[in-house]
Amino acid sequence: MSYVITIGRQHGCGGRVIGKDLADRLGIEYYDKNIIHQLIADDCGIDEEMVSELMEKKGSSLLYEMASFGKTNPLEEQVFISKSKVIKELADHHSCVIVGKCADYILRDYDNVLNVFLYADIGDRIDRIVSVYKDFPAITEKELNKMDRQRSNYYHFYTTRKWGERKNYDIMINTSVGLDNVTSMLETIARGRFGGQD
Questions:
Q1: Which domains does the chain have, with CATH numbers?
Q2: CA atoms within 13 A of residue 137's CA, in its CB half-sphere
Q3: pLDDT attached to residue 125
Q4: Which has the minimum average pLDDT: 19-28, 41-50, 52-61, 172-181?
């Protein structure tokens, strides 16, 4: 019996690192935005970079406000529909870990799904973004909060749910306790619930 672990997360909390390590430990597939964006691009017949741009735009406050008045971009909707299709196909074919992409919402009617949300202390997130990810030479708390708002806006626009709200997830963990510790906890929970590998 296959199963899926979805991981929503704040930027800089180590979600992709944990997701990949967890998938490796459980012997299941791993999918993050890089892999899923390519699958969406193939499905829609558009460039992968355009897929990324369309998803990032929907997180902006301006487009979020416009959407409140019923204005929408057909290509953005096509990309989300394709994303839903891709994620459901992945879930239908094998056990996997899916990081981000509203996967918890897209798979809300599926059995055997464990929905996780990861967060971390602001200082730890900034340090990881600058020192480990090296996404930016420096980042302020204000800039990081803006990134979180963009993720929240995108999630809410397509799901009508509140991003990071406890009732949407089975587990919420502060990764400041250590990425390896969090991965070990999730591995134990997954093996207890699903029995490990397919």
A1: 4-191 (3.40.50.300)
A2: 0
A3: 96
A4: 52-61
